[in-house]
Amino acid sequence: MVVAPGSWRVVTVKVKNDELEKKMLVPEVDSFTIDPKTGRAVFGGQDEAESWITVNPTGLILPPGKEETVEFIIT
């Protein structure tokens, strides 16, 4: 996704609990690089772009079978 300087976009992600017990979810943003040898993502780096993204809600509890939407606001 490309977001022009000074503008913002919202990305929504739907999550559903397919388990038989309630689940606590904590949405996060994490930097990564691609390993040139394996092509796999390597998480845990640091990138200033992480600070451009806020998450709403910051946590939620999903009862069995329920679905919620998480917003990632990119500024």
Please describe what this structure looks like.
The protein has 75 residues and is mostly beta strands. Helix content is 0%, strand content 47%. The protein is built from no helices and 7 strands. It has a 3-stranded antiparallel beta sheet with strand order 1-7-5, with no helix packed on it. A two-stranded antiparallel sheet has the order 2-6. A two-stranded antiparallel sheet has the order 3-4. It is globular. The mean pLDDT is 94.
Question: What is the structure about, briefly put?
Answer:
The chain has strands at residues 9-16, 23-25, 31-34, 41-45, 53-56, 60-62, 67-74. By secondary structure, the chain is an all-beta fold.
Low-confidence stretches: none
Provide the spatial order of strands within the biggest beta sheet.
1-7-5
Our Rg estimate from Cα atoms comes to 15 Å
First-last Cα distance: 12 Å
**Mean pLDDT level:** 94
Annotation field: number of helices: 0
Q: What is the strand tally?
A: 7
> Strand count, sense and closure of the main sheet?
3 strands, antiparallel
Secondary-structure element series: EEEEEEE
- Percent of residues in beta strands: over 45%
